[in-house]
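Bug report

Summary: structure tokens for GroES-like protein differ between web form and batch submission.
Environment: batch mode, default settings.
Steps: 1) Submit the sequence below via batch. 2) Compare with the web form result.

Sequence submitted:
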Amino acid sequence: MRALCWNGVNDLRVETVNDPTLLNPKDAIVKVGLTTTCGSDLHVIDGLIPSMKDGDILGHEFMGEIVDIGREVKRVKVGQRVVVPSFIVCGSCWYCQHQLYSCCDNTHPQPELGEPALGYPTAGIYAYSHAFGGYAGSHAEYVRVPFADNDCFVIPDGVSDEQALFLSDAAPTGYMGADFCNIHPGDIVAVWGCGGVGLMAQQSALLMGAEKVIAIDRLPERLAFAQNAFGAIPLDYTQVDVPEALLELTGGRGPDSCIDAVGMEAKGEGLTQIYDRTKQLLHLQTDVGAALRQALYCCRKAGTVAILGVYGVMDKFPVGLMINKSLTIRTAQQHGQRYVPTLLDLVAAGKMNPALMATHRFSLEEAPLGYQMFKHKTDGCLRAVFAPAR
């Protein structure tokens, strides 16, 4: 089959690789219908996530059709159209039983690779380095899905392929961030980032009853998208003083909740940005923390900050600020299996349409070009969608 493979920092190639096979009686093989880029992929492509190997297949956000199943798969069948969350879960460990799916104890085949940095292994995730399981990704014609009964969600007839695609990662991650905020009527929620996850967090916050959502970014087309699609209040952080603007929009109190949907490659300004970026380039830290530091600073006292962006090691992290402001910090990699059924219902009811994020479409052979447009945000690219064909 054909697949998009990582061959070093910023070296992506579409290559011919072996088709996946059933390795376990709980496996399924999914013929990929659509797969999409994600901001987290850029951390891998840019060499910020260690333990990638030449030839690793990229991609973790996808939907498709089941074409083969192991003998112990009971809930899903060959021929069904499914969406698959990016984290792989066993469904039976303590964490899965408590719906903390990205912490699953049993889906990392080499837990010793994650333990030195994290203390405990996480669940396995498609295409996110061998430190996170070494699973082949979805930018391919076929992908093996372990624990298919837990991880394949049947797509209702009224939900399109493109709508379902983003329920694999962007939509559940954004929805989880809003859920973490424990939103009450009248709340004001500020969201850093108007990429796929940030936009889904904004819409989810409004669906959960927020009175106002404030969208913070630097790209005019993304801010316009947030305003036009969801009624969010746009703030261009290159044009305004964000802390002052948020105080003005909240009557001097600050947002009740702040959501960081940016992560380790934030674009800040001033000396702090130069310091962070220099340390990142010298591999003295992995993160540029501009968005997260600002979210912590701007949140009202006793408010909630939900961290959805991916981070590694950050210098100058303001722990004292968090303590003295009595902030509640909620963060996780996405517990997709917890949220996908709810999201499918919202899409089927017409209350959410993630397909709006699919601004650019490519064949799998054109995937390197799609990633270039996505990375550099050219031509208003919000998400590049790839359609493998065979």
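Above is the batch result. After comparison, the two runs are identical; trailing whitespace caused the diff. Residues 44 and 179 are 27 Å apart (CA to CA). The chain is about 30% helix and 20% strand.
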